[in-house]
């Protein structure tokens, strides 16, 4: 795995850890809804990336990378919703957003790179 992909994977890992830490502050009645959804969507970011990386065919790899990108956007919205509901502090939201933006830019470049191989 390249240095770029290793950095991306480490950022994704930090993003998942951030989601798990932040969801500890959510209201208890959100345990089976927003807590679960944020944890699953943030975990899906790295799991789909890693699975896609392990695939040989570019079209399959691209599919997993795109699912990873979609899960990233889903989780970023849940972080925003949590901020809007005053479940988390702005500093926690900013940390998640900053990680999410960096991951998104890097993941998008991976997607574009794979698309070039297909076309």
In a nutshell, what does this entry contain?
With 119 residues, the chain is mainly alpha-helical. The protein is 84% helix and 0% strand. The protein starts with a helix and ends with a helix.
Task: Describe the protein's architecture and organization.
By secondary structure, the protein is mainly α. The chain has a single domain, classed as 23S rRNA-intervening sequence (de novo design (two linked rop proteins), Up-down Bundle). It contains four helices and no strands. The protein is 84% helix and 0% strand.
Count of alpha/pi helices? 4
What is the CA-based Rg, rounded? 15 Å
Order of helices and strands: HHHH
Structural class: mainly alpha
Q: How does the overall form come out from the CA principal axes?
A: elongated
Uncertain parts = none
Number of strands: 0
* CATH secondary-structure class: Mainly Alpha
Fraction of residues in helices? over 70%
